[in-house]
Amino acid sequence: MTAIPALPPVARSVAELRRIVAEWRAAGHKVALVPTMGALHDGHLALVREAQRHADKVVVSIFVNPIQFGPNEDFDAYPRTLDADRAALATVGAALVYAPTVGEMYPEGFATTISVTGVSEGLCGATRPGHFSGVATVVTKLLLQAQPDAACFGEKDYQQLQVIRRFVRDLDIPVEIVGVPTVREADGLARSSRNAYLSVEERAAAPALHRTLSDTAAAIRAGAAVDAALEAGRRAILAAGFVSVDYLELRAAEGLAPLAALDRPARLLVAARIGKTRLIDNIPVEGA
Ligand code: PAF
Prior knowledge:
By secondary structure, the protein is an alpha/beta fold. It has helices at about 15-25, 40-55, 80-90, 100-105, 125, 130-145, 160-170, 200-205, 210-220, 225-240; strands spanning about 10, 30-35, 55-60, 95-100, 150-155, 175-180, 245-250, 265-275, 275-285. Pantoate binds near residues 68, 139 and 157.
């Protein structure tokens, strides 16, 4: 008979989180944080496994952060699956779930935001005003609440990862930020909690996003003009059944400056809508 792994305990308040982390520190343990909004999938579990390479104890925060959603976005619909999330985290040995309430995170009178210029602008920043300041504010709070040695974030949200690296550096927050490669389905679709919104037909069409990234990167590597390759990529995404393309762009891998040629390590980033769902993805593009 296989033993059922024990569910990780849940801390609901900053005080409880800090008490547990202080006990670990007193015992000489290193601590890592994996910030999430729950609805966990294999991509999140990969973050936990990576975090365990950096620390003895891994805290997974689960908090659907209201201030990073725009007024017409899916905050209310966002899946909240704490029991299933704990069961999944038990299988990888996460030490603690930190699931604060909105009131604990943003008490009456809360009035501070962290906003990051440069890397927050363009790409998702253009279509989701306020999103990255919502992310930066909550991640700053989570880092100060848990005070981990390391924190892990998926490369799937590549612009978010760059924003986090920027403010951690700018604010001298003493934590190692670890980027973790995107986990994909067998057909290339990036794992995302939002894939749950896709109909059967949309799910069948969705891998076109990754396919287009790969084809566009190959064309650019082979010497195609960047503008023409991006335009062909946009057309391919629409032809596959997506209703619109928010962006398909080639940016510098560090700092996200727009690139007209592959003259340094780059990232190809895309956001497109299929039905009512907005999907994002990105891949690295290195010169030959
Ligand atoms: O990537 C996410 O799930 C969220 O943006 C994060 C980093 C947990 C902040 O709410």
